[in-house]
């Protein structure tokens, strides 16, 4: 194992890119050089890492000389265009976009679930969709115990999922409405302030959004079980940080709420918050800035033979994106 | 049929009571005298009806002399205490609280679904829970066609469900947070601004809230089918008006999305908004102040034999409470 690595963050000025820098620093990732890359617009900006300013450079195909690990979070088009150059330069790419996730040659990894898949990489490892990551961290340990047949999930997703511009849009709309002005919209298909929008990403012909289909397909790939059925509804709600999920699971075998809690208490990356009589359950507000996937409201669903309902919450920028990518990098170098 | 009626609104100064007055006026309900009743605190206030001020009177057991229809929306305790006095005075009580809903002698009515049950009343008719009303208006027509076996529903409920104080709390919390002050909470178990709270009402020993169990029990009673299974998760979200619901339905028989849309287009009280490619689907923001139950995102759920997913939105104060109560009164007097 080497002592330290040359790391690039592609899309460094975005919400996820920024958080990647924070997570690399916070977890003492063994960085030799940190190279920050972004579009020409952002080149020249300075970002802080370990109390020093690093100047953001323009992303080009020549940006990756000497880079060993490249964390990409600059959108699918940029990943498709520049990831091959990074791989050619000798880097392993950990890509947060959806560009390569379903490519059979690309491992799709949540370290708590399928870290072993990292070894199969051919230069690119994909970081899953945020809604999927938190769901599989919570469900995989239960699947191993009682085998999941079917999942019905409805999400409550924060505007941070649309990046810094999504955060700004919610804030600006609320300020406008509270000043009796018109709320302008750019990022979301409708006003998000004081509204719930049952659309994230574009619609496919079957009536599901791409975001929803990610939850179907990525869940199966990460959990390595094509028999798992997922029926998703993805909804944007007017909160800044963290995604919440109402998850209904039908198992092959019986699993009591007590056993589920016990399993989850002993599962990596999970914190059980489940004392409803004292109003203790996971909350988006409390999950923001935290590493864990929080699970609560675990209760029997008596409408089906072996059913449970759960409420799963996590910081979508952190475990849902930046942290998961850095955790993959840690596994890659044998650091954790 | 009489020409006009003496009507009392109990809880006239609350969010629902106020809307009842608006709906009575807007629908030209044949009112002879409108008597507005509330707690001693609110007595003396004036509310407008047909451009005249009506002075709110203190609710006592003697308030109902001459009253023929009493619309109650002052909480379960007040209903239990004062509804018998109203009935004794000769009024028919239409009660918006949960006090009598599951009483076998009390019809629980959504006029589009089971108006016929009104005739069985013995002085009291119950108005169902808001989340349940909008769900059964949309699902009953589909049930009649393809028979519902099981419903998995997750709600996105506005703060208006907690009355004017709930609305004020969200507004005040946002104002405080945007001024870098602490958000105070009184009405909700946690901060609701920029948060999702998976608790509405108190918890029962099985881990479900009373709000959730209402959706189980009231649905069966209104749809008059004890075989319907309901698995609910009720969640408060930071929006002012309207409840949204992500509803997964398993049917006994096949029902295509096209047939479901066609049935719903011809169903009373329903408006289909379902052109996702153009980002047309029901939105809480647009439903506010409207009478209809809006249904969209109707799509096949391929994770089960005969499944559909739907997104159902309605104004919880209007169809979910005040309008439904007045519609019951209209049926009672044979006015509609």
Note the gap between the termini of chain A: 12 Å
Gross morphology of chain A is globular
Order of helices and strands of chain A: EHEEEEEHEHEHEHHEEHEHEEH
The low-confidence parts of chain A are: none
Overall tally of domains of chain A: 2
Name the helicity range of chain A. 25-40%
Largest sheet of chain A: 6 strands, parallel
The number of helical segments of chain A is 9
What's the oligomerization state?
Answer: homodimer
How does the helix and strand content of chain A classify structurally? alpha/beta
Offer a quick outline of the entry.
The structure is a homodimer of 336-residue chains. Chain A folds into two domains: 5-128 and 321-332, Rossmann fold (3-Layer(aba) Sandwich); 132-316, 2-Layer Sandwich (Dihydrodipicolinate Reductase, domain 2). Chain A contains nine helices and 14 strands.
Structure description:
2 copies of one chain form a homodimer. Chain A is 31% helix and 23% strand. With 336 residues, chain A is an alpha/beta fold. Chain A has 2 domains: 5-128 and 321-332, NAD(P)-binding Rossmann-like Domain (Rossmann fold, 3-Layer(aba) Sandwich), CATH 3.40.50; 132-316, Dihydrodipicolinate Reductase, domain 2. In chain A, strand 1 (5-10), helix 1 (15-26) and strand 2 (31-38) form a beta-alpha-beta unit. In chain A, helix 1 crosses helix 9 (318-332) and helix 4 (130-146) crosses helix 6. Chains A and B meet through strand 9, helix 5, strand 10, strand 11 and strand 13 of A and strand 9, helix 5, strand 10, strand 11 and strand 13 of B.
